[in-house]
Amino acid sequence: MRMHIRSGRVPEPRSGNASQNLSAQISTARPSTEEPKMSIDPEPASSVPTVARRSLLRGAAAVGLVVVPGTSLLSACATSGGDSETDGGGGTKSDKNPFGVKEDAALDVVIFPGGYTDKYATDVHEPLYKKAFPKAAIKHEAVTEISTVVQPRLASGTNVPDMINNSGSKLLDFGAMVADKQLADLTDLWDAPSVDDPGKKVRDTVVPGTVERGSFNRKPYVLYYVSTVFGLWYSGKLFSGRGWTQPADWDAFLKQLDDIKKAGITPYGYAGANAAYYQYTVILTHAAKLGGQEVLKNIDNLEDGAWKQDAVKQAATAWAEVGAKYLDKAYEGLKHTDVQLQQNQYKLAYYPSGDWLENEQKKDAPADFTYQLLPIPVKGKLSTKAVRATAAEGYLVPAKAKNKAGGLEYLRQMLSRAGAKGFGELVGSNTVVVGGAEGVTFPPGVTSSTNALKAAGKEVVDFFFDGDYKDIEQECRTATNALMFGRETPDQFCERMQKKADAVKNDKSITKFTR
Amino acid sequence: MTIETQRATSPSRHSTPDRGKPSTRSEARILSRLGQVALILWALVVIGPILWTFLASFKNTAEIFSSPWTLPAELRLENWSRAWTKAHVGRYFFNSVIVVGLSTFGTMLLGSMAAYVLARYTFIGNRFVYFLFVSGLAFPPFLALVPLFKVVQNFGLLNTYTGLVLVYIAYSLPFTVFFLSAFFKTLPGSVAEAAVIDGCSHTRLFFQVMLPMARSGMVSVTIFNIIGQWAQYLLPVVLMTSADKYVLTQGIAQISVNAGYEADWSGLFAALSMSILPMIIVYAFFQRQIQAGLTAGAVK
Amino acid sequence: MQHRKYPFVFGFLAVPVALYLTFVISPFAQAFYISMTSWRGFAPPKWIGFDNYRRLADDGTFWKAVQHNGILLLVLPLVTIALALLFAFLINVGGGSRSGTMSGVWGSKFYRVVFFFPQLLAVPIVAVLFQTVYRPNSSGLINGFLMKLGLEPVGFLINPKLALWAIIAALVWQCVGFYVVLFSAGMASIPKDIYEAAALDGAGGVTLFFRVTLPLLWDTLQVAWVYLGIAAFDAFAIVNVLSVDNGGPDGTTTVLSVEIYRNAFAFSRYGYASAMGVALFFFTLTFAALTLRVTRRESIEF
Question: Per the record, which residues fall in region Disordered (chain A) (predicted)?
Fold first, then answer.
């Protein structure tokens, strides 16, 4: 999915539903600006014996004679990482340096080079940090397969990065990291004075909901930086050429899908192979618009019968009908890139996605394609204008980072006006920084999603279960495909999801989150 | 080694009339026809996708997706140059050659030593060591990934050719020992005894007598190892994290992800072709030796 | 052979065993230990005894995966060996008895080279290739052809009834060539006079195959069975790349290795994933032990 794959903007905030695609399971620490120093730092716990054994074995391998005694399992044990939490800093704290960064301390930054690439980090955020601390050396690593590369480093406590952009199909599991106390508490960051206005706390310079989005059981651990709006996307050019306008309600929408079908274009489609996530976002947003915010809150909090609420059932029924009548069955076997390409070739009318789509397709879509967003055209407790919007693309500071203060400072710099504006200009997306996009001209798609978000006002919905409970997320993908491609009925969909949610609720080994 | 050579050397036989009964002859002819058809079909099935990849490497994305069964409108060589330079296929190829070359050599040396001792010497613990090796055939490798990372890191061998080579050797040993020890067992004991009587040391006996005798088996296991290590993917993904040390499979996989990001499908197929072609050429060139090796080794 | 035996044995075994213990056994030993913990990948693991194994017993997905591995274990060797035997026989003997000498069909050298090609490709490459072969619309290699003929496209990977078979077919595609060469090698070393004698007695191709070739190849067949069986227990890369939704649609193609991978790397449940891995280890070991027992080879020399 895009998520998976490109996932720069992975719409899987809070832990992300990485489906693990082998093709995406590829890791890549891109060449960093410096020589990667794969250091031999002995880990704190057992440094002496390790070193001794290491040189011994190297000798053994070379000479081919010495026997390694027992290759002592314990000291080589992968699981024996210490948990010493470092206290950052070492420098003096001030308004300009609220976390007490030591000014010559090196900073190790890991960026996921997905849809956004890693240019925004090397060209905008890192220079900002460098400007604040000219003596600091920044080690930049672009890593596609975050968990493969970073997890062993966190587990062993060696080479722990100071700031990680945890994203992509192979992102680290946020829930597990929180449970294992791997993440630095970001309360200090949110309470620190902002870069642009020391009189204002950082938490007051971001869009409401940002702190909550990155909180686990109400404690903030993750900065979700990119503001993302979800909806149904179509080509402004195609639609105006055919005289199709935004449908005002569900009936008009269905009627329009009929017209589109008559015109020989596939009316609606998503990629079943890896992007079922996009479709269940649509179904759940639909449900929330019918039944109000509570619908999603119940699902997130694992309330009894949450998946059997009327609103959920109605939404599933509505979309099963769309699936039966307007969806190309072959799409179940396609990846998001294939389906998006079909839309760019005007073979597909509506495609559900987040507003990273336009940037992702900028090379493939015709120049005059003009992406436009349609909020799900239904109303109930909420109006037709309501949308799902969220903050996406997680950034975190490991609890064991050597330069934790530097990591926090890096996040603070990202949240500055300059950081947000530079990001907006480079990748064409909004950030969570209020007014951060002032002076940036966005392309038509992002402009339309920005307007939709504005129009929605307080009617913005969001859900968290996908990041909190991977089992439910996976089941929801599978169930959504079964529903949309006609293998299961809406009742079966609700039944099946409820069963999974109950199983998770009753499983004591799974950490529960409430919102 | 084949029957054909025999046929060629004895042309006179062709002129002699068939001695089989008529029914047998027609049966044979039908079988031969059907067989020919089956072989052609399978050859098409095998060549089809590979040829298609090759053709797609000259197409652009639109052509690839809209008309899979047509020839490229023009030879877009830039796909190949893009894959070679931008995607560093050349570099990855070189890395693979180094790593696989060294580790295959190491595997064969160490594996044959262990297999030989286990096959031809009785000592306390022989069976234990043998089964320790053989049970390795059953280990699902990704189960060990995280602990393995730590072990390699402890030796300071992360991101080094040495580290990857040692790990490849270690993971190739179960198969190599299993196969070669069976092979060493089949070698006649008389030669070895004669050599020992002549005062030959154990080590010399191995290197100068037994190893040459086992040549055919060694060749076939070497081929198995080269093929297996060349295709290895999981281990390098974990152990080689810096892009300039990637082996070919990693590189291809990365390109295939990037193709998803950038929709550079033609670049992907060019890279695929680049990684496939040399293998095919090398194989076509050496296939006689390779098959002779397999003959001798596997069947004995 | 007794003189100075132990120093020699020790010297020859030391390095291979040391390497093997360090890089294979010790990580796996740790994996066994991890399977008894609730380790999530970061903080030191907590010992929970056999809880993970108890969970396995009730895990429907796990058993589904086991079942698919079972199907693979039966079908993959059977189909691959059958095809490989047929092709090897045709290539070597299929030309019929010409003047009493068995010969392969015309072009047998060509086939022997070409059939081996897929074996040269790494699995990720095969998977990328077959994504294109199976693509469910007109851009797919098979469906593009079918649709040109005016037929409905086939959802190879999206029809729950077809998907596992499509994946097995890709594996067979890759494996057959190797066994063709292996069996050809075996057949070539069967003394020709046996065939000639049989042919003189009037034995046709089919009879030759079942009465002569098959019995003499029995050992090689059993070796092939073991290799293919072990391959069937893995099948990770091909399922993970080729299947829809990683083991889908609706879990109809998932195998143990994919579930292990999912639990470890997507869910960060290393403990549970390791328990699955240990289960897989014992399945494979049982299979290998059973087969090896049957295969115990006599050293017959022709």
Answer: 1-47, 77-99
